[in-house]
């Protein structure tokens, strides 16, 4: 399972009016999908404990206690869509 | 030589004082004797009452700073304490014994400072509304707007909350400003501030904008009061399924927490 944190629920609101016939989602989600060197970083979790660790890692750069919204992606779905992914060592202050 | 003069001078002072004492001692002793006679002839009850009255007046002018001018204070002679009455509490029969404190300059100073700061914030309203519109608010992250408004609140909380309320009501047609104000509230407010600001939150809960509704629920999640829970329960329709799920999750948490 792969985890990607998002900044706001409303950005992913499917009811938002999109002025493009072929659009699958609202444009605001793009700000939650910023890439670096054409890659999108996610956290990998193989167990419920890993999910908790990933949430702690995502919350470390925050300044205030607030809700955390994250999307869970199935690796199989990415493979089906022919999206490559690879492991990298996570960079967080969590020990 | 200097030492000798000094000693002479001091000696002379002692002689003078001794002489003065001798001259004064007779009339002084006579006065004390006379005073004692007068005291013994006084009715002690009257004397005690007079002393209590004096004490009561003296104490009255030492009004504690925290008391407001709208509060009446009467002095309870029997047990020597103050009884503080708000106007609504005092009956007509009590009014005779109630002493009104004239003018509390401290309260006036506070009101003046609040008004001046509110005027300053009003002068920056449009500039800050524009900044809110252009700022990308992310959950749990401070930004320039939240940092700035938090600094306002630290300086004068009352004026800042008043101003935010005004800013909200003057930008009702700009959802991005409203959600920014709410997201800022979620970041800067403290427990106990909520009842004053709740109308803004309730108004945005009833909005058609999912971003506004989300921001309002975030404020409720932060404040966690019974009034907030009631407001949340009063909303039947949410603009999207995601927001409805979020509201349901917060409602469930608060119900468990508040009983």
Can you describe this structure?
The complex is a heterodimer of chains A (about 100) and B (about 260). Chain A has helices spanning about 50-60, 75-80, and strands spanning about 1-5, 45, 70-75. With about 100 residues, chain A is α+β, with helices and mostly antiparallel strands. Chain A is globular. In chain B, strands 1-2 form a two-stranded antiparallel sheet. In chain B, helix 7 (about 175-190) runs parallel beside helix 9, helix 8 packs antiparallel against helix 9 and helix 9 runs parallel beside helix 11 (about 240-259). Residues about 55-100 of chain B have low confidence and may be disordered. At the A-B interface, loops of A face helix 7, helix 9 and helix 11 of B.
Unreliable residue runs of chain B: 54-102
CATH fold assignment of the largest domain in chain B: Leucine-rich Repeat Variant
Find the count of extended strands of chain B (DSSP E, 2+ residues): 2
Mean pLDDT of chain B: 76
Helicity of chain B, as a percent range: 55-70%
Quaternary structure classification: heterodimer
CATH architecture of the largest domain in chain B: Alpha Horseshoe
Global geometry of chain B: elongated
Domain count of chain B, please report it.
Answer: 3
Structural class of chain B: mainly alpha
Using DSSP, what is the number of strands of chain A? 3
Task: Please give the order of strands in the largest beta sheet of chain B.
Answer: 1-2
Structural class, from secondary structure content of chain A? Answer: alpha+beta
Radius of gyration of chain A: 15 Å
Low-confidence stretches of chain A: none
């Amino acid at each position: 399972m792969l985890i990607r944190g998002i900044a706001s629920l409303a950005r992913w609101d499917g009811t938002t009016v999109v002025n493009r016939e072929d659009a699958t989602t609202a444009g605001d989600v793009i700000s939650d999908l910023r890439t670096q060197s054409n890659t999108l970083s996610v956290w990998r979790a193989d167990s419920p404990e890993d999910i908790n660790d990933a949430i702690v890692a995502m919350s470390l750069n925050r300044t205030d206690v607030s809700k955390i919204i994250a999307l869970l992606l199935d690796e199989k779905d990415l493979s089906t869509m022919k999206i490559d992914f690879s492991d990298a060592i996570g960079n967080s202050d969590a020990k | 030589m200097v030492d000798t003069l000094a000693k002479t001078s001091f000696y002379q002072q002692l002689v003078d004082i001794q002489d003065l004492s001798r001259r004064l001692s007779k009339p002084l002793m006579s006065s004390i004797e006379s005073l004692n006679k007068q005291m013994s002839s006084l009715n002690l009850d009257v004397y005690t009452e007079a002393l209590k009255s004096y004490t009561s007046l003296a104490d009255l002018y030492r009004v504690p700073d925290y008391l407001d001018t709208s509060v009446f204070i009467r002095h309870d002679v029997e047990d020597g304490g103050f009884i503080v009455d708000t106007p609504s509490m005092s009956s007509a029969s009590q009014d005779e014994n109630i002493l009104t404190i004239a003018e509390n300059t401290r309260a006036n100073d506070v009101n003046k400072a609040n008004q001046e700061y509110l005027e300053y914030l009003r002068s920056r309203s449009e500039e800050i509304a524009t900044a809110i519109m252009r700022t990308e608010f992310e959950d749990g992250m401070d930004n320039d707007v939240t940092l700035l408004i938090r600094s306002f609140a630290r300086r004068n909380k009352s004026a800042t909350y008043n101003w935010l309320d005004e800013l909200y009501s003057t930008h009702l047609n700009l959802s991005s400003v409203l959600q920014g104000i709410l997201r800022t509230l979620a970041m800067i407010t403290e427990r106990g501030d909520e009842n004053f600001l709740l109308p803004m939150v309730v108004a945005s809960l009833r909005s058609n904008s999912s971003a506004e509704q989300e921001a309002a629920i975030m404020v409720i999640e932060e404040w966690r009061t019974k009034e907030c829970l009631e407001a949340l329960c009063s909303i039947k329709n949410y603009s999207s399924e995601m927001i409805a799920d979020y509201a349901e999750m917060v409602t469930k948490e608060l119900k468990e927490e508040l009983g």
